[in-house]
Design a protein that fits this description.
With about 120 residues, the chain is of the alpha+beta class. It is built from two helices and three strands; from the N terminus they run ααβββ. It has a domain of about 90 residues: Glycoprotein, Type 4 Pilin (2-Layer Sandwich), CATH 3.30.700. The chain has a three-stranded antiparallel beta sheet, covered by helices on one side. β1 and β2 form a beta hairpin.
Length: about 120
């Protein structure tokens, strides 16, 4: 029984060390994906004179050859968001909670430049 208790304590400590690193790796991957999507969108605009419409979406990057392979899902298995208005566009991930507006974990354009305003940090949810 004591051995089982010791093993579960060790398992918990390993989990406590690895989980924050895993969450940071997910955000790093999302940032890289967003940077690549933004770069492909800029190249698309250079070639066509416009960004893809909302209806065309990110899929137009694949059909036009500006992005190899399918559009990736974010690390939380949700599609990346895309909007365009005039000469500006935005790509984003909703982060771990899947809701827009929580600036602690939302990532936009590959650069989360907004300051966190959530009451609890993302890993405490």
């Amino acid at each position: 029984m004591v051995a089982l208790l010791l093993l579960s304590c060790c398992g918990f400590n390993v989990f406590a060390v690895i989980l924050p690193k895993y969450e940071a790796a997910q955000q790093d991957r999302a940032r890289l994906d967003l940077k690549n999507l933004r770069s492909a969108l800029v190249n698309y605009r250079k070639r066509t004179g416009r960004y893809p419409t909302r209806e065309e979406g990110l899929q137009s990057l694949v059909t036009s050859g500006h992005l190899a392979g399918p559009i990736p899902l974010d690390p939380w298995e949700r599609p990346y968001g895309y909007s365009v208005e005039g000469d500006s566009m935005e790509v984003w991930s909703l982060g771990p909670d899947g809701r827009r507006g929580c600036t602690c974990d939302d990532l936009e354009d590959g650069y989360p430049d907004r300051q966190p305003t959530c009451a609890t940090p993302p890993h405490a949810r």
